[in-house]
């Protein structure tokens, strides 16, 4: 009997031996992963964002030539609530010198307290470096300000190198103290706390002392008849303010009460390295630091090296590393290091995030190039007589304000596009946790789209067409930018799952903020593309509506995206949440508990409309008995269960029959 069912005796801890029955709960499949090009942010490191403002904080806004920000913005505008974002960069990655040179570097002149031959109270000048956390020209706008202040002044008795501490004053080891006394400079001198210790006075009372790097009196420790000197001391700390001068998305970081010695628990270099999103220490710092001129005040950084954007060096290997998809670990980051340093990058790194269920690569067709100059011919001035036309003047060249990324040509470079997208689908097939959302290459006619479609046969991939145009809110000219449709589709899928449930087909929703499309599709084109399994955004009076939710599988059982995602969810739930049953005694009770837990999960999904059938017996079955688990199978340590479900498929067609009788009445069935 458990302690709850009987009277308890003496106070104490009682163990409740009851074991909770296994229970399975559905997992979320509305979390998307985006891989692309951004002007700033961590490289090859997935960052979780829950809103568009989070993306702006890490990766900036819509500036830069990449399409990643437009896709993420479309996802959140469509109703998505969580995504992982990964910024790609050229190979080689940091800490290669080429990658390090792409980071901006700033230096600040301070003083070093422990330099050989230095003035013990003032130190010697030294320059400490802070480099931008990530590569890019954005780092050139950074500014760093150091402010040194003293706090918590107290009086103490100095006896040689030991400073008796009053009650409640215990500066940690590594602190820097400014000590004032009649024999010291008016501004005081700086001393480092090497350690804290306890001492017993002549009356037997014990107290804490700070062991300094040298005696405040400048001589030998007091002994014999020399009495300790009374000094006034205060702890010197630094406040570092890092400002990003981006006019569109300014960022500010402030780190207060930083220690100046390496042994301090909040040493400035360690705190900035661990907590700052903008800067990181450049190399090892020269020991304990002091204000630059021996007086408490402030110091500003100076730029030494501007950061650079390496857009021109980004290639297909930036998105997909050298490791073949079949050699990547299946679940989680375990084993990723075995593939080789710096090789699991881009899409391969994002595929290891177990939360991701929708994978979009809006810049997969990336091919960087300088902007193509446009030409403009001056208008002809009207004349009153006819005469031979003079030779036309040289056209005026108009250069855009910034370079842009050029996409691979779908006509001439279709094999390269297929290679990249097939590699992405192969990764999704291996992981079996997410669906790769592909973008049909822009500019392809319907017949060419059919040839492109023939290269894929997977239920872990879905294709969307055409590219949609959106207008950046800060663009004064209100020019439309064509965005891959997969970002809109990911938001529709996520919103539909959260609002209606996983069994509902993620379609029949308008693309948020889409004002135009890269191609005009007629009714016949949409019909042909639908039969090919291409999910089309159809132009309607109120916008562009996603008309279907199919995969690129030729298997009719996995043609619907909702069915594929439902089966993926069931596999993930049973694979992950049943691991706790390992090493349990294989008994009929365990078989019954597993069967009951699975039935409870499927029953909840059935009531939510996930399965077809008028009864539960028609919708699903669960078998786990002695027929599936004979003695020889149990001897191998196995527990076998068979689960069958009949997924409900979304309704795609409404057939209306209109009949008119002889009397003129109309019946619609």
Automatic annotation (TrEMBL):
Q: Which InterPro entries match?
A: Tail_sheath_structural (IPR052042)
Region annotated Disordered sits at 210-230, 372-398
Q: Where is the composition biased (Low complexity)?
A: 373-387
Its domain of life reads: Bacteria
Report the leader peptide range: none
Any transmembrane segments, and where? none
Q: What is this protein called?
A: Phage tail sheath subtilisin-like domain-containing protein
């Amino acid at each position: 009997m458990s302690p709850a069912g009987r009277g308890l005796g003496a106070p104490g801890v009682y163990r409740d031996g009851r074991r909770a029955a296994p229970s399975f709960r559905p997992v979320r499949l509305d979390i998307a992963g985006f891989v692309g090009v951004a002007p700033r942010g961590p490289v090859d490191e997935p960052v979780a964002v829950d809103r568009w403002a989070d993306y702006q904080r890490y990766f900036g806004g819509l500036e830069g030539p990449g399409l990643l920000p437009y896709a993420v913005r479309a996802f959140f505008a469509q109703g998505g609530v969580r995504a992982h974002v990964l910024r790609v960069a050229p190979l080689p990655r940091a800490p290669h010198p080429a990658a390090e040179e792409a980071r901006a570097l700033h230096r600040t002149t301070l003083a070093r307290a422990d330099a050989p031959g230095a003035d013990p109270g003032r130190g010697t000048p030294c320059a400490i470096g802070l480099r931008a956390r990530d590569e890019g020209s954005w780092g050139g706008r950074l500014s760093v300000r150091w402010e040194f202040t003293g706090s918590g002044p107290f009086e103490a008795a100095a006896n040689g190198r030991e400073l008796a501490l009053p009650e409640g004053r215990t500066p940690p080891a590594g602190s820097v103290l400014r000590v004032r006394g009649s024999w010291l400079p008016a501004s005081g001198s700086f001393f480092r706390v090497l350690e804290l210790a306890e001492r017993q006075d002549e009356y037997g009372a014990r107290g804490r002392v700070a062991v300094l790097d040298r005696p405040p009196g400048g001589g030998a420790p007091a002994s014999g008849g020399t009495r300790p000197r009374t000094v006034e001391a205060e702890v010197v700390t630094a406040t570092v303010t890092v400002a990003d001068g981006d006019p569109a998305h300014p960022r500010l970081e402030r780190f207060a009460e930083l220690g100046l010695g390496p042994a301090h628990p909040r040493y400035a270099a360690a705190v900035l390295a661990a907590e700052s999103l903008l800067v990181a220490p450049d190399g090892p710092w020269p020991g304990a630091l002091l204000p630059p001129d021996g007086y408490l005040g402030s110091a500003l950084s100076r730029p030494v090296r501007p950061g650079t954007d390496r857009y021109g060096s980004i290639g297909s290997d930036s998105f997909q590393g050298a490791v073949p998809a079949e050699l990547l670990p299946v679940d989680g980051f375990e084993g990723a290091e075995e593939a080789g340093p710096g090789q699991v990058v881009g899409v391969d790194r994002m595929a290891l995030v177990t939360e991701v269920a929708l994978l979009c690569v809006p810049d997969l067709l990336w091919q960087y190039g300088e902007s193509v100059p446009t030409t403009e011919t001056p208008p002809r001035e009207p004349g009153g007589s006819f005469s031979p036309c003079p030779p036309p003047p040289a056209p005026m060249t108009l250069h855009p304000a910034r370079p842009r990324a050029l996409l691979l040509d779908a006509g001439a470079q279709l094999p390269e596009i297929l290679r990249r997208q097939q590699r992405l689908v192969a990764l999704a097939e291996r992981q079996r946790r997410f669906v790769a959302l592909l973008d049909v290459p822009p500019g392809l006619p319907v017949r060419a789209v059919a040839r492109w479609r023939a290269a894929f046969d997977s239920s872990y991939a879905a294709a969307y067409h055409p590219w949609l145009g959106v207008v950046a809110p800060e663009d004064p000219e209100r020019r439309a930018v064509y965005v891959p449709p997969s970002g809109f589709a990911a938001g529709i899928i996520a919103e539909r799952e959260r609002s209606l449930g996983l069994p509902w087909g993620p379609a029949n929703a308008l693309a948020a903020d889409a004002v135009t499309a890269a191609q005009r599709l007629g009714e016949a084109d949409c019909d042909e593309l639908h039969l090919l399994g291409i999910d089309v955004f159809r132009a309607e009076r109120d916008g562009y509506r996603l008309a279907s939710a199919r995969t690129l599988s030729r298997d009719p059982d996995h043609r619907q995206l909702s069915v594929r995602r439902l089966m993926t969810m069931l596999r993930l739930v049973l694979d992950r949440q049943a691991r706790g049953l390992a090493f349990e005694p294989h008994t009929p009770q365990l078989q019954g508990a597993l069967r009951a837990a699975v039935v409870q999960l499927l029953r909840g999904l059935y009531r939510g409309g996930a399965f077809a059938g008028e009864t539960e017996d028609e919708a699903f079955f669960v078998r786990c008995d002695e027929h599936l688990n004979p003695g020889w199978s149990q001897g191998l340590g196995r527990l076998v269960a068979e689960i069958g479900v009949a997924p409900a498929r979304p309704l795609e067609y409404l057939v209306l029959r209109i009949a008119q009788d002889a009397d003129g009445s109309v019946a619609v069935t």
